[in-house]
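Page 47, continued from p. 46.
Same chain as before, 595 aa.
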Amino acid sequence: MIGRLLHPISYFLIAATLATGASLASTPPPESNEILPLAQVQPGMQGYAYTVFTGDQVEKFDLVVLGVMPNFLGPKQSIILVELKGPKVEHTGVVAGMSGSPVYLEGKLAGALSLKLGVFTKEAIAGVTPIEDILHPPAQQSAANVPPAGEFSVQGSAAALTGLPNGAALQPIETPLVFSGFQPSALQPFASQLQSYGFVTAQGGTGKAQAEDHKLQAGDMAGMVLVQGDASINSACTVTAVRGNDVYLCGHPFLNFGDVQMPMARSRVVTTLSSELASTKIVNVGEPIGTITGDHLTAVTGKLGQPPAMIPLDLTFAKGREEKKLHFEVVNHPKLTPLLVALTTFNGVSQNYLYGEGTTLHLTGEIRLKGHIPVQIETSVAPTDTMAPDNLPIAIAVQNVFGRLFTNDYEAPNVEHITLRVESEPGRQSFSVESAWLEKGEAAPGENLKVRVLLRPYRGPARIEETAVHVPDQIVRGTMLRVLVSDAEWMNRASRGFMFPGMGGGGSNGLDQLITLINRERHNDRLYVGLFVPAPTLVWDDKELPNVPLSQINVVDGRPVPGSVQVLRESLASESSIALGGPVTGLISLNLQIR
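Result:
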């Protein structure tokens, strides 16, 4: 079943036939670069393919052509249907990670394994992408015209689009997403997102660079590097062909992202795990050896050589005087980076020996962008009584910030460095606003008015906090003002309507303005008291213009892009806040008469 998140070990039984495989000599693919055109493929043809079942040993297995299915992948994009033969493949079936395995008919390269037929099948039946479509795609898609992941993905589309049960539909052979340094519990909260991309997850490891890593040949394992460092996330599939420095692998898309720039690494198979549900290869991923340059319908392509730069991510977890520092590098891609940073942050915290449930967490961080001011991240999270991990909101907060940056309409952000710090404080430090009152019911212009707030800590005695707001000097006597005592979200809503980050409005017309809006977002561990006067505020992009005359509002109200202009009935005249050390929730509204 495509798009399911598999437990890395529990579904699999180690393939017994691999016990003697390590002693066999490696069988290199033929050196001939001659290809067999699709027009010459006929049912009944005998052939063979190459893949790795363990280590670096490229092994040969037989197959027979069942037929050709025209226009299967799309207009003029056919596939060859084959049945795999031999004791090993009949035992394992079509294995996740086998996609890209070069297929030879009459001693000529005919294509790459790319599809499998259903699950729990008695025969190992696979689809082959013709080599002509791999080396010379009929119409490569670019990243600009590929639908967003989750709306359509070749990896998970076959059964969903045809309406056929999995046992009767050809679907792409899964490309394992190999997690090293991650536990299944750290992946579970992101299961739905991983499923939407059609990933099959597997645990694996990382290996040291070896001198022969760059010497790729057909049948070897390679893939994309998504995260590397103190933990890693990589893909793994089989190399179909190598032409000079050009590498062709997978036989189908990884995520159908079009033209990309991602590190390419050599992979080595530890073992192949056999399962009637879904066999897969367990791999160790080595150092980058080049760049993945294309992710298209018929193949993933890459070039041997220097890998592209990744985004450095430094994460520090602190508990009292103890600290643990972790370093990662994350691939730079608008659709993947927000999820990968969140996943890596969540794992770095939850799989940390200093971390424990039932603590209040404070996140601070900075995202450095080339040519722009840094983006500041700050939030606090208190534990809850639900079964959701207490630190999950930390990851979600980070993902939301990156989502806003990478989905902006103005320019692609060039992230130079990410620094995150998570501090743990024992117990649940959270507060709710129960009541509030003014020092007196009337005030004069220019006066500082005391405001007292009754707060209820979690399972603790109520406490009173006091602050003050300043009454404007120019306020007209007899005017009724409003004092708002609230958390950060309600104060944001009252002062900026729906145009501040996180409330669904854009409120900016450039990346600089978007960063300004994010940095101005109020913090959830503070109690806010605001004094509002009954005069309109014009919120225009990232600017708040209080006390705007109605004549000016009428002029801008007919602006061609009204979505970036908002008129509020009140203006925030003064504001104060109290840091409480934990999340605050609640809202109280009070009236103040000016005498």
